[in-house]
């Protein structure tokens, strides 16, 4: 399975990447909307781990683009804020399958990817 991680913090993305790769998945990372769009077009991820608050671009624009180009691709939104904590994110992003805190243990995030990929 192909997984795209879109995360501002390189070191956090690297930790997640290592855990997800241990599950046998191919992983690419991006730090901006432009880079993420390029990866979606070329790498065709099955799952996206997406920081909801990007410093360069819009997470919802990335999710929307992925939904249009790859309708089967699921998105796990990650945040360290309480924004969308009421669950309204699922009304804005039809491809959202989860919304978790950035402090979620990497092994739990990897397990979620396997779970949602299996249910697709």
Per-chain topology:
Elements: E1 2-6, H1 10-22, E2 26-30, H2 33-43, E3 47-51, H3 59-69, E4 74-79, H4 89-92, E5 96-101, H5 106-118
Parallel strand pairs: 1-2, 1-3, 3-4, 4-5
Helix pairs in contact: 1-5, 2-3
Low confidence ranges: none
The helical percent reads: 40-55%
**Overall geometric form:** globular
Query: N- to C-terminal separation?
Result: 12 Å
Question: Whole-number average pLDDT?
Answer: 92
N-to-C SSE string, H for helix and E for strand? EHEHEHEHEH
CATH architecture: 3-Layer(aba) Sandwich
Largest sheet: 5 strands, parallel
CATH topology: Rossmann fold
CATH class: Alpha Beta
What key attributes describe this structure?
120 residues; alpha/beta; Rossmann fold; five-stranded parallel sheet; 5 helices; 43% helix; globular
Q: What do these coordinates show?
A:
β3 (47-51), α3 and β4 form a beta-alpha-beta unit. This protein has a single domain (2-84, 96-118), classed as Rossmann fold (3-Layer(aba) Sandwich), CATH 3.40.50. Strands 2-1-3-4-5 form a 5-stranded parallel beta sheet, with helices on both faces. It has 120 residues and is an alpha/beta fold. Helix content is 43%, strand content 22%. The chain is globular.
């Amino acid at each position: 399975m192909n997984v795209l991680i879109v995360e501002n913090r390189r070191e956090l993305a690297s930790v997640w990447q290592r855990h997800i790769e241990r599950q046998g998945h191919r992983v690419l990372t991006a730090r901006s909307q432009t880079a993420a769009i390029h990866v979606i077009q070329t790498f065709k991820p099955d799952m996206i781990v997406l920081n909801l608050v990007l410093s360069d671009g819009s997470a919802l624009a990335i999710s929307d683009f992925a939904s249009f180009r790859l309708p089967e691709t699921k998105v796990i939104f990650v945040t360290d804020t309480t924004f969308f904590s009421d669950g309204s994110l699922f009304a804005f992003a039809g491809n959202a399958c989860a919304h978790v805190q950035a402090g979620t243990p990497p092994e739990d995030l990897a397990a979620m990817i396997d779970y949602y990929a299996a249910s697709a």
